[in-house]
Amino acid sequence: MNPDFPIYSPEEQIAHPLLEEKEIRLTIKRDDMIHPFVSGNKWRKLKYNVDEMRRTQRNHIVTFGGIWSNHLLATACAAAKLGIKATAFVRGEPIDSDSLFLYKMFGMNLIYTDRQAYRDKLKLYNDYFAHDPSTYFVNEGGSGLLGARGCSETIQELTGTYDHIFTAAGTGTTAAGILHGIEQYQEQAELHVVPVLKGAAFMLDDIRRFSESMLSFQFHDEYHFGGYAKYTPELLRFIQDFTSHTGILIDQVYTGKMLFALFDMIRKDKFTRGSRICAVHTGGVFGLLGVKKNFVF
Ligand SMILES: *Cc1c(COP(=O)(O)O)cnc(C)c1O
Question: Taking a C-beta distance cutoff of 8 angstroms, is the pair 168, 255 a contact?
């Protein structure tokens, strides 16, 4: 197999009138710069899974996701680069989508699955691949303990010292890894998790389990904008404002909601002046192109 991806993810301090007014130092940890397609937390979540595949001499990754999945895009591209096979169970019907096009460009094998069957991922895996010892199961979104272990390195890499660390959460695996990293490398920092979907309480258990930490953290579950991948004109306006002030693209599914939450809390004076805040840019700006028609300039 080919060598892994080198990690390039600088910390970038950003300027914005609100940050100046409230005297907040905001740094973005640019995990989105790791790779254009294997971006952000998705490579971190794959890394130890790939190690485990090598250790157990398997060369075919089998995983799960939707039509706009950052995880599938990352897996498809990473597999191509690493010289391994990839198959994805894709929820729903084939449609004309830029992501599906890219999955196929990277040579991923796609199995379209109806919503009912998609729910039981282990059954799908077993039905198709139980007897193939070359295959390796990776859960939807790359979630799990090995995924969290990779994400804790985001914190290990930090060169600055922070009072607050923010991340978006879908499965909670990234947040779990970050919590683990905070316990080891940034013990003065408080973690703030912004779930991007409705009814995110399930995540609390997974964050505990996958972080292997009892450290407390803040859970801001009122910034989901109606649910996963839902958005409002206000959120899109915020995204445009943020991007035009910083030169950093964010998306409406994950990092837009997380940074909206952070800016809302700054506006409401939830942080003392001089606070040092690090927001992790978990990548995945590709989804923004799917809603470009809804922006008003
Ligand atoms: C997948 C993804 C997340 C969610 O990560 P979890 O580990 O599932 O919580 C956050 N941000 C971006 C950009 C993502 O692609």
Answer: yes
pTM of the model: 0.96
Closest ligand 1 atom, CA of 254?
11
State the CB neighbour count (10 A cutoff) for residue 132: 10
The verdict on the CB of residue 142 being under 6 Å from ligand 1 is no
66 lines ligand 1 (CB under 6 A): no
Report the alpha-carbon distance of residue 233 to residue 50 in Å, rounded: 40
Burial 133-170 (b: 16+ CB within 10 A, else e): eebbbbbbbbbbebbbbbbbbbbeebeeebbbbbbbbb
252 Cα–ligand 1 center, Å: 12
Encode pLDDT of 21-49 as tens digits: 999 999 999 999 999 999 899 999 999 99
